[in-house]
Amino acid sequence: MANPTVVLEFEKPIVELEKKILEMREFAQGESIELTREIESLERKLDKLTREIYSGLSRWQRVQLARHPRRPYTLDYIEHLTEGFVELHGDRGFADDKAVVCGPAFFRGRKVMIIGQQKGRDTKTKLYRNFGMMHPEGYRKALRMMKLAEKFDLPVLIFIDTPGAFPGLGAEERGQAEAIAKNIKEMARLRVPIVISIIGEGASGGALGIGVGDVILMMENSWYSVISPEGCAAILWRDSAKAPDAAEALRLASGDLLQLNVIDSIVPEPSGGAHRDHKGAAETLGAAIEEVLGSLLGLSTEDLLQRRLEKFRNMGVFYHA
Amino acid sequence: MVEWFHKSTEGLISQTKKDIPEGLWTKCPECGEVIYIKALEKNLNTCGQCNYHFKLASTEYIRLILDDGKLETYDTGLISGDPLEFKDSKKYPDRIRMAQKSTGQNDAVLSGIGRIEGKEISFAIMDFSFIGGSMGSVVGEMIARTIERATMRRIPLVIVSCSGGARMQEGILSLMQMAKTSALLARFDEVHKPFISVLTNPTTAGVMASYASLGDVIVAEPKALLGFAGKRVIQQTIGAELPPGFQSSEFFLEHGFLDKIVHRRDLKGTISVLIDYFNQS
User: Pick from A97, A81, A106, A105: which is nearest to A143 by CA?
Assistant: First the structure.
């Protein structure tokens, strides 16, 4: 359930109604039929309200949901979706980047390689995970794991959730651009299926650096764009407070990306958002991954790679003068 | 080398040098040297004092490195769509039209087939004066086709980059051009022909984090701004001043992400020699 200390503005009516229902339940203790009826009616109202609010979310509201501090992260999906996960560390060159979590696991009876960006929930773990912002060694660690998967014929499941590749001194010194570029190229020709799931934030090159694959799934309330709404607002209007406007202009929501043919499908979230039901969110995403993985595993490697190339080859909108 | 510079470029639209203010003299932004403009032009738009390379219009760059200053251009009819219906102070299609008018180009790339010391190459050059050389669908498509031409004809590939990164006005689709171009470079590897990536001032963000970083050999002009993140963003993140020379060609070379820094006047010769070494017949 939602952490009561973290309630987004548009969630307030829902949370208040929930509180009221809870109070009445405690008061009634199943004794009064009258109250039970009242509670049932309120629950119907809650259901309707939730559906109303969530069907009309603005892009900025979805960005807020994507960033919700209770939103399920990669490790939550690993917990709910896999068994026997063994985390493997390091890029064998410089360091172990904690903003990305990698390792083999069993997914619905099948051996897979998991790679996912990881955020923290409290100050300490947020710092430990560097807010989900990878350094070059993170991209190199991810690539090492992909090569490992290729060598031993494991499909790769990738979870994207990052506010961006880390913009710092060390990141530039160690070649952030090269690391991302190399991953994009190598992922285009990795000889095993790659299923990408965008589970929260998909910010620019930081996301794309582990974002090339055969199928791209996107959780309903995630965002994916060339720049964060704040970054875009700072450039366009020299004011990052205009992020809500930038979110609209960028068309970064799951529905937009489906329309632009960048993603393959939207994974619906539980009523009220993934943060309100981790297990339910994982269940739906797991079913979607299982379905696409099954069909990808039926393809020959040559077909797989040809389709992957064509998928990205065809992206873009232009015309002939 | 100066001769190429003055050769006419038939079939190419000429362009004004935006970087250099009107008048007889200009000041080097790197070392402050006051330079006589005629002398600057004679020196291929580089500072004789500190080697700073002023921007050179892509048409002039073509004169500098391609035989007879000739590029058989392709794909000049590709025009950007407006998939997001993006509007800030201007509508995106208006922004494109203005850039087309001022540069005489369809978008931020000129591409096609040319020769370097007799060797046929597939070539593309980016132009910063077209919306900061930013990469949208058209730039991505033109670079993609440049790579495909090199792959199909089995000839070397040379791309001269100059870009602030992905074009924000096309949102996620401009990000996907990084994937499109890089995926085609993976395919180009199969024909075993060299890709020489030339970095000029500036090459950053989405272009740096895709094809510009993927050359078999990567060379850069001296003192170019090269990097992933913007300086202001990094400054805000670390809360301190950036060290001098940060994100320059020299910084890239020092940290192992660049093969060579090459003065403009030596660029054609260097590319030619490298192609000879790596080109298998």
Answer: A97
Give which of B141, B79, B147 is closest to B113, Cα–Cα. B147
* B21 found inside a domain: no
Residues of B numbered 235-254 whose beta carbons fall under 8 angstroms of chain A's beta carbons: which are they?
237-238, 242-243, 246-247, 251
Assigned token pair, A159? 């979870």
- Cis bond upstream, residue B202 (ω within 30): yes
Q: Which has the closest alpha carbon to B206: A114, A208, A131?
A: A208
Task: Please state, in angstroms and rounded to a whole number, the distance separating the CA atoms of residues A306 and B175.
Answer: 21
CATH number, domain with residue B122: 3.90.226.10
| Distance in Å from the first CA to the final CA of chain A | 55
In a domain, B189, yes or no: yes
Integer CA distances (angstroms), A129 to A119, A120, A166, B177, B221, in order: 6, 6, 11, 29, 37
What's the gap in Å between the CA of B88 and the closest CA on chain A? 7
User: For tokens 């992909």, what's the residue?
Assistant: A146
CB contact under 8 A, B179 and A188: yes
- Geometric angle at alpha carbon A128, from A127 and A132, rounded to 5°: 75
pLDDT interval class at B12 (50, 70, 90) = low
> Which residues span the domain enclosing B103?
57-278
ipTM of the complex, rounded to two decimals: 0.95
SS (H, E, C) chain B: CHHHHHCCCCCCCCCCCCCCCCCCEEECCCCCCEEEHHHHHHCCCECCCCCCECCCCHHHHHHHHCHHHCEEECCCCEEECCCCCCECCCEHHHHHHHHHHHHCCCCCEEEEEEEECCEEEEEEEECCCCHHHCECHHHHHHHHHHHHHHHHHCCCEEEEEEECCECHHHHHHHHHHHHHHHHHHHHHHHHCCCEEEEEEEEEEHHHHCCHHHCCCEEEECCCCEEECCCHHHHHHHHCCCCCCCCCEHHHHHHCCCCCEECCHHHHHHHHHHHHHHHCCC
Considering only CA atoms, which of A169, A64, A71 is closest in space to residue A117? Answer: A71
Q: Is A34 helix (H, G, I), strand (E, B) or coil?
A: helix
Q: Is residue B6 part of a domain?
A: no
Task: Give the pLDDT mean for B201-215.
Answer: 98
Q: Could you count the other beta carbons within 10 Å of the beta carbon of residue A213? A: 26
User: The tokens of A187 are what?
Assistant: 């992922």
CB contact, 8 Å: B101 with chain A? no
Range with the poorest average pLDDT among A19-33, B112-126, B226-240, B248-262: A19-33
Summarised one tens digit per residue, pLDDT across range B42-83 is 999 999 999 999 999 999 999 999 999 999 999 999 999 999
Interface probe, candidates A178, A230, A260, chain B, greatest B C-beta count within 10 A = A178
Q: Which of B178, B181, B184, B237 to mutate to test the interface with A (most CBs of A within 10 A)?
A: B178
Q: Is residue B23 part of a domain?
A: no
What is the domain count for chain B? 1
- On average, the pLDDT of chain A sits at 95
Per-residue DSSP letter, A260:
T
The two most distant CA atoms of chain B are separated, in Å, by 53
Indicate yes or no: CB of B173 within 8 angstroms of CB of A237. no
